[in-house]
Amino acid sequence: LQITLFGESAGAASVTAHFFAPGSFRYFRRAVLMSGTIANSWAIKEKDMALQMSMFLAKKLNCTLGQGKNLDVNLTAQCIRQAPAAEIQKAADAVAVEQILPMTFPFVPVEEDEHFFKGNLFTKLKMRDFIKDISVLIGSVKDEGTYWLPYYFLSPKMGFQFNHTISADDPSNRALINREQYKSSIQSFIPYFDDSQLVKHALLHAYEEMSESKNPQEKLRDGVARFIGDFFFTCSLIEFADILADNIHGSVYMYYFTKRSSANPWPKWMGVMHGYEIEYVFGQPFRHSHLYPQSQIDSERRFSEKIMKYWTTFAAEGVPRPQWPKYNKVTRKAFVLNDKITGTTHQIDVDVHGKSCSLLSEVQAVINNSKCSSKFETFHCMSSTSSLKCKSFIRLRC
Fold it and tell me: Is 9 in the active site?
C-alpha cells in the first residue's frame, strides 16, 4: 500500500502515534507532519494520570461507582457512556479548565497499552522501536506560540487580552505587556522545569532577547510567544525529525512555513500562526476567495497551488520537489515556504530556531541531572470530589 497519513498539531500527533503501533505499519508508507508529534509534551499522558483525569470526569458526571480498590471501572465506564454527549463535553471542558498549567490537555493518548502501542511509547522511542519503512515531510510555522496567548494569558496579570469587537490591529490589541506581566507569563511555565529558579532566570533573560523589535514591550510580548512555540512545538518537532532521519529507511524532508495569510483575522504582530498553513493545503484561496483581499487573491492562489503540489507530489512520489534537500541532524536544512516559491527561486534555512532549541536542551539536561525519573511525566496533584490541582509537571528524559 502507498497510503500517506497527514495531520496538523493534534492530528500530526495522532499520525505519529501510528509510528509506534505495530498493527498499523503495513497500512502506510509516508507521513506529512505539520506542527506536532506524539512526543510533544501536550500530546500524551502516563497511565496513572490518564486514569486520574478519567475519574475526575466520572465524578463530575456522578459516575464513580466504588472507591479505591473497590472501584468498579467497568460500571463507571458504562455510566459515562450512557451520559448525554453534551454533558460529557461540558464535564470534560470543566476538567480542562481546572488544570492550572497552560498547554496541558486532560484527554490525550495514553503512553502504554496492550492493544495499540503494545508496550510503552517512550521505551519504544528510546529503543528506536518504530516503523522504519517510511518517508516523512515534517515542519513548523514561524510563530507557533502566538495562537495560544489570548486563550491562556488573557488575565490582566499576563496582559494578552484580545477584544474581537474592534479592529484586530487596534492599539489595544497589541498586547504591549510590561516586565511584571512578562515575568508572570514565564513563571506559569516554570513548573514544567521542577520550579527551578535557575531555569526561570535563564529563560527570562534569553527570551527577552529573541525578538528583532526595538520596542521593549514588543520584545517582552514576542519573547513569551517564542518560548511557547519553541518549547511546545518547534524544538521537540526538530528533535523528533533528528531521530527519524537517523533511523528510517526512507527520507525526511523539513519545511519552515513563513508566509502569513492575508485572510488571517488576528493582529499582524501574531505573525505566521499555528494552524494557518492548513488553508493553503486545502486550497482555501480557490474555495473561499471572498476571505482574501482581492488585490492579493491571485498571489494567494499561486501560493496555495504550490503547497498543494508539494504535498500531493510527496504523497505520490516520496519527494516534494527536486530542489528540496533531504533533512539530516547535521546540516538541518529546511525548505522555506514563503512567497518565493511562486516564482523561480526558493530559500533554504539551516538549523531553524537552533539557538533557542539548544538553550532548552541544556535546560532539560540540568533538570534531568538534578532530579531524574524513569517516567516521562511526573505529576503532583491533589484531587477531591470537586477539584483537581496539579502543582507540578516535570518533563524528564533519562
Answer: yes
Give me the catalytic one of 8, 35, 274, 300.
Answer: 274
What distance in Å separates the CA atoms of residue 42 and residue 236, rounded to the nearest whole number? 11
Write down the pLDDT at residue 69.
66
Report how far residue 361's alpha carbon sits from residue 124's, in angstroms, rounded to the nearest whole number. 21
Assess whether pLDDT exceeds 80 at residue 291: yes
8-state DSSP, 232: I
| Measured distance CA(270)–CA(160) in Å, rounded | 11
Q: How far apart are CA 165 and CA 156, in angstroms?
A: 18
User: What is the Cα–Cα distance from 350 to 174, expressed in whole angstroms?
Assistant: 31
Domain locations in the chain as residue ranges: 4-45+108-395, 49-107
Query: CA-CA distance, 306 to 181, in Å (whole number)?
Result: 41
Q: Which of 9, 35, 135, 184 is catalytic?
A: 9
Whether 112 is catalytic: no
CA dihedral of residues 66, 69, 74, 80 (deg, nearest 10): 50
The pLDDT value recorded for residue 68 is 63
- For residue 274, indicate whether it is catalytic: yes
- Per annotation, catalytic residue among 46, 111, 144, 279: 144
Please count the other Cβ atoms lying within 10 Å of the Cβ belonging to residue 268: 10
Which one, of 309, 234, 312, lies nearest residue 12 by Cα? 234
Residue 382 has pLDDT above 80, yes or no: no
CA distance 57 to 76: 10
Contacts 24+ apart (CB under 8 A), 214-219: 215/176, 217/176, 217/177, 217/178, 218/174, 218/176, 218/269
Q: Could you tell me the fold of the domain covering 4-45+108-395?
A: Rossmann fold (3.40.50)
Residue 302 DSSP SS3: helix
Q: Which of 397, 356, 357 has the alpha carbon at shortest distance from 376?
A: 397
- pTM for the model: 0.90
Q: How confident is the model at residue 365 (pLDDT cuts 50, 70, 90)?
A: confident
User: If DSSP codes are grouped into helix, strand and coil, which group holds residue 252?
Assistant: strand
